Amino acid sequence: MRYLAVSIIAIVYLVFCWFCWRNYQRRQQQLSTQHSLGTESTSAEIIIAYASQSGAAATIASQTALQLNAAGKASHRISLNQLTPERLAQAKTLLIIASTYGEGEAPDNGNRFFARTIGKLGGNSLQHLHVAVLGLGDSSYKHFCGFAHLLQHELQHRGAHFLTDVIEVDKLEESALRHWQYYLGQISGQPHYTDWSRPAYDEWKIVQRECINHGSPGAPAFHIQLMPADNNAAAMSWKAGDIAEIGPGNSEQKIQQFLQRLGRDTINPVLLLHSDLSVSEERCIELKKMDDAALVNSLTELPHREYSIASVPNENTLDLLVRQVSVAPLQYGLGSGWLSVHANEQQPIRLRIRTNKNFHSPENNCPLILIGNGTGIAGLRAHLANPARAHTRNWLLFGERSAAADNFFNTDLQHWHKAGVLARIDRVFSRDAKPGEPRYVQDLLQPNALELQRWVQEGAAIFVCGSLQGMAQSVDHALRNIFGTQRLELMADQRRYCRDVY
Ligand SMILES: Cc1cc2nc3c(=O)[nH]c(=O)nc-3n(C[C@H](O)[C@H](O)[C@H](O)COP(=O)(O)OP(=O)(O)OC[C@H]3O[C@@H](n4cnc5c(N)ncnc54)[C@H](O)[C@@H]3O)c2cc1C
Ligand SMILES: Cc1cc2nc3c(=O)[nH]c(=O)nc-3n(C[C@H](O)[C@H](O)[C@H](O)COP(=O)(O)O)c2cc1C
User: Fold this and answer.
1) φ and ψ at residue 162, rounded to 5 degrees
2) Atom of ligand 1 at shortest range from CA of 337
3) Are residues 391 and 484 in the same domain?
4) What value, to the nearest 5°, has the Cα angle with vertex 234 and ends 232 and 239?
């Protein structure tokens, strides 16, 4: 009997231990999920490393983690000094948010990264790694975002692939942070996020909208011309290279579907035009409990979209070239659908101009080599149209699919060719290319290596605009072969190799 009692006590004790152990495991799992938002988790493939003195970069690192987490991507947030060679070896994507101090130096929690980690890494040890760097700084300092650039330089030297050039944030300028959010959307594969700050939009109107690639094997591309809604000439102020931030709106159908889902017919649909209506079932139940005003106020605004401005102000319209993104039959991407289909010509278009200093024309009258594909022609066209560069020499290398359908802005290009602004135009169309002929714009570079070297020798700057996937990396690779990595990086430092890729 005594043995039976002891056995029962032992079994109860073992079951108790098993429960404790299981709860401990669950708790650990929960912690690891929470930490992927902010602190610990060794399995995450995305590392967010920050170097911050007074906290701004660290805060943006947390916001970055939250956006990725909302898109279902776990990340691991640490200071740059905590980023060891072992952690780098495991990561697939590294996002660095780094501020700069002193003479372009690191904040304290990033000042040992070179000695402890980078210095221990060999030549091509980071070839597995995709990196994006957000630099915080103040352009009144001599070494603006100097530490961020140094990081990019050193990581690039060890073979890391860069998703984009350093995104510089001057005095925490909000539009640069929104631009960073765009890349987080790309990295996470989730373009539906909430902007950290709402752009202060102006109202513009569409004065002309035309599909300019009928019969193309690619998606429709629309040339869209806009003017300020109140014809205010003061709003017509931007430089070649600048970007239009657009506040998209919902289609009428999407608004009606939302109202039906909520069982409301008392809300004015106009109040829902710019709100994010893609809400979960749980959120929908909450919304149903609210009165109309509270419901409308509780919705977040749709995220912005960015488009390269294709014109200059003295052409009297702000021009965009927008590729229509289809997500299902008659269902379009948020920004491209709004601009190409849903917004009618009477509708105010929310638009804000983002200064994009990195892609402004050089101040001297040096020649320009303009390289791009697809809608990237927009960002390049603006430089050709720039009256300040009317007496310079330019060379356009451009790739698209079909010569018959995708010869974007051909009339303008021929005009500039005749006028001597465009000394050379080299275009390549992938669907027309015969075997052995160049297909993509990157294929045009090596055969023209000597001429490209001659132009650069004569002081030319290289500007690249268009696809991040496929084009930008291949062009970069070809240019490295032609000029050598050191020379190309020096050109980038001197703002003679500038890219605007997306
Ligand atoms: C600096 C810069 C300049 C740019 N310049 C130009 C330019 O000149 N011209 C231009 O056309 N673009 C340009 N872009 C890209 C532009 O900002 C947008 O990313 C592009 O128009 C697509 O946005 P969207 O809102 O139409 O599509 P999104 O709604 O963002 O959709 C994008 C992708 O997400 C997926 N997706 C979205 N919704 C769904 C859904 N319901 N179901 C399934 N999948 C879905 C699809 O794969 C779709 O292809 C630029 C970007 C940057 C950063
Ligand atoms: C003492 C001091 C020195 C700075 N030096 C630079 C500099 O050399 N280059 C630069 O781009 N920004 C410089 N800055 C600006 C900071 O990098 C910028 O304010 C940044 O947003 C700070 O981010 P943090 O809060 O993450 O440290 C300096 C700021 C201070 C206070």
Assistant:
1) -100, 125
2) 26
3) yes
4) 125
Q: Residue 180 is part of a domain; what is its CATH number?
A: 3.40.50.360
Residues spanned by the domain of 238 = 202-354
Spacing, Cα 79 to ligand 2 middle (Å): 17
Please name the residue whose Cα sits nearest to atom 29 of ligand 1: 333
Q: Which residues pair with 425 in a beta bridge?
A: 396
Distance from Cα 286 to the centre of ligand 1, integer Å: 30
Q: State in Å, rounded, how far the first CA of the chain is from the last one.
A: 78
Indicate if the pLDDT at residue 5 is higher than 90.
no
What is the residue-wise DSSP string for 119-130?
GG--TTTTTT-E
**Same domain flag for 365 and 468:** yes
* Cβ of 196 less than 6 Å from ligand 2: no
Burial track 122-139 (b if 16+ CB lie within 10 A, e otherwise) = eeeebeebbbbbbbbbee
Is residue 195, in this structure, part of any structural domain at all?
Answer: no
CB-ligand 1 contact for 442 (6 Å cutoff) = no
- pLDDT tens-digit series, residues 143-166: 999 999 999 999 999 999 998 999
In this structure, are 115 and 69 located in the same domain?
yes
Distance, in Å, from the CA atom of 428 to the CA atom of 499, rounded to the nearest integer, reads 20
Q: What total of structural domains would you count in the chain?
A: 4
Q: Is the CB of 467 under 6 A from ligand 1?
A: no
Shared domain check, 125 and 226: no
Distance of CA 180 to the CA centre of its chain: 6
Work out the angle at residue 452's Cα, subtended by the Cα atoms of residues 446 and 456, and round it to the nearest 5 degrees: 145
Position 27 pLDDT exceeds 50: no
What is the model's pTM?
0.87
What is the structure's pLDDT at 251? 96
Q: What is the distance in A from the centroid of ligand 1 to the CA of 381?
A: 21
Contact 299, 277 (CB under 8 A): yes
For a substitution probing ligand 2, which of 60, 101, 111 has the most ligand atoms within 8 Å of its CB?
Answer: 101
